[in-house]
Specification:
alpha/beta; 5-stranded parallel β-sheet; 16 helices; 11 strands; 17% strand
C-alpha cells in the first residue's frame, strides 16, 4: 500500500501504468457522509471490477481520504481482508492535508504502508510548467496555483496568504495538534519566515513575541511547522550530538514563496537590493536541500565558528558535504577552508558565483553532486 500526501493533481503517473492498472478512482469529497463505510463500498466495487475483468491485480486510488472520520480503521479492515484472501489490490491513498494523513496512519496502519511525500514544486517543474525564470522562482517559489498571478504581486501575496498559509495552519496544524497558543504559533511562523537563512536564538525570539511562554514551547511549535513542510530550523554541525542541539537555530523556509509573501518590498526592488537578494538565493538553496532531504536521506546543518561560516553542511550516509552559497554581491569567507581543515568533508564547494551555477544546482536532483 502506498500513501501519498498531496493532491492527485501534483502527482504525474506514467501513462502506461495508468493504462494497465488504474481501474478504480474516487474521492472522499463525493462521500454522502463522513463515515468510513464509504471506503468499504468503494473497495468492494474494486473487487467486483477485478473479478469481472478476470484481473490478477487492480489499482484502487482514493483521494481526499482525510475528510472521513476514522478512515484508517476502514482501510486496515479492507486491506487485511484482501491479504487474508489473497486479493491483489494495489492501493494509493491521497490527501491534501499532510498532518491529517500522518495522524491517520499512526492509528492502525503500522507495517502496512509506504509513505511518499510530495514536496514543494522544484525550479525545473515550475520552469517547465509555467515558464518561470530562475529569478522568478527564487522569489515566488514553487506554488503552482500562484504562478499565473505573479504579474500582479498584491494579488499573488493575497493568494499565498489566504489559500496556502491560512489553510495550512488552521486546517493542517490546529485541527491535528494540541496548540495551546494559536496566536503564538502564527507569530512564530511569520517571524521564522522573515528570518529565513539567518541565525536567531530562541531567547531572542522570546523577546520579540508576545505571550511567548518559554523556549520549549517554541521548539515544539517549530517541530509542528516542520512536519507541515512550512518552516524548520537547522542546527550547527558538530561531531558532538549535544552541541548540535544546544546551538543557535538557523531558520529555513521550505518554499521561498512563504518568505516573499510575508516580506516587504516588490520582486524588482528585492532583486536590485544585493543584500536582500542574497538572502533569497540562500533560502532557495536551503529549500531545495530540505525538499530532497527525505528522498535522499540527508541530514542538513550549518556551521559557524567566530567569523567563519558555511551556509549548509550535508550528511549523506558516511559522506559529508560543505556548501557555501554565493550571490553576485556576497564575498566568500574562509568558512569552507576552515571547515575542511577541521572535518575533512568528502567535498566542499560553492553554489552560485564562481562555483556550481545556481540554475544547475536548483535543477539537479543532487544525487550526482552528493555522491562525489
Amino acid at each position: 500500500m502506498k500513501i501519498f500526501e498531496e493532491q492527485i493533481e501534483d502527482f504525474y503517473f506514467d501513462y502506461q501504468i495508468i493504462y494497465v492498472y488504474l481501474q478504480t478512482y474516487d474521492t472522499a469529497e463525493s462521500a454522502p457522509d463522513e463515515s468510513n463505510s464509504w471506503v468499504s463500498l468503494i473497495w468492494e466495487t474494486a473487487r467486483k471490477k477485478m473479478t469481472l475483468g478476470s484481473q490478477t491485480e487492480h489499482l484502487l486510488v482514493i483521494d481526499e481520504i482525510h475528510k472521513l472520520e476514522k478512515w484508517s480503521d476502514a482501510v486496515k479492515r479492507e486491506w487485511d481482508m484482501d491479504s487474508f484472501n489473497g486479493v491483489n489490490i494495489k492501493v494509493i491513498i491521497l490527501g491534501s492535508s499532510r498532518l491529517l494523513i500522518k495522524d491517520g496512519l499512526k492509528e492502525s496502519l503500522a507495517g502496512r504502508f509506504e509513505l511518499i511525500n510530495m514536496e514543494h514544486w522544484s525550479y525545473s517543474e515550475m520552469k517547465e510548467a509555467f515558464g518561470l525564470s530562475l529569478e522568478q522562482y527564487i522569489y515566488f517559489g514553487g506554488y503552482p496555483g500562484g504562478a499565473e498571478l505573479i504579474k500582479n504581486e498584491s494579488r499573488w501575496r493575497k493568494y499565498i496568504r489566504d489559500s496556502i498559509i491560512e489553510p495550512a495552519i488552521t486546517k493542517d496544524v490546529l485541527q491535528t495538534k494540541k496548540i495551546y497558543k494559536p496566536a503564538l504559533l502564527r507569530q512564530l511562523f511569520d517571524l521564522g519566515c522573515a528570518y529565513s537563512g539567518e541565525l536567531l536564538s530562541y531567547n531572542k525570539v522570546l523577546g520579540m513575541l508576545s505571550d511567548a511562554g518559554n523556549a520549549t514551547t517554541l521548539v515544539s511549535y517549530v517541530k509542528v511547522l516542520d512536519e507541515s513542510r512550512l518552516l524548520c530550523t537547522l542546527q550547527q554541525y558538530a561531531k558532538d550530538t549535544a552541541r548540535k542541539y544546544k546551538s543557535t537555530p538557523k531558520f529555513q523556509v521550505y518554499n521561498t514563496g512563504l518568505f516573499s509573501a510575508l516580506a516587504a518590498g516588490s520582486f524588482e526592488n528585492t532583486y536590485l537590493n544585493s543584500s536582500k537578494w542574497g538572502r533569497f538565493v540562500e533560502s532557495a538553496v536551503g529549500a531545495h536541500l530540505m525538499n530532497l532531504a527525505d528522498a535522499l536521506d540527508l541530514k542538513i546543518y550549518y556551521w559557524r565558528h567566530n567569523d567563519d561560516e558555511v551556509d549548509y553542511i550535508v550528511e549523506r550516509n558516511d559522506k559529508l558535504f560543505a556548501i557555501e552559497v554565493k550571490s553576485g554581491s556576497k564575498s566568500t569567507n574562509k568558512g569552507l577552508s576552515e571547515f575542511s581543515k577541521l572535518y575533512k568533508p568528502t567535498s566542499a564547494f560553492i553554489v552560485g558565483t564562481g562555483g556550481i551555477p545556481l540554475e544547475d544546482f536548483l535543477s539537479s536532483d543532487l544525487k550526482g553532486i552528493l555522491s562525489m
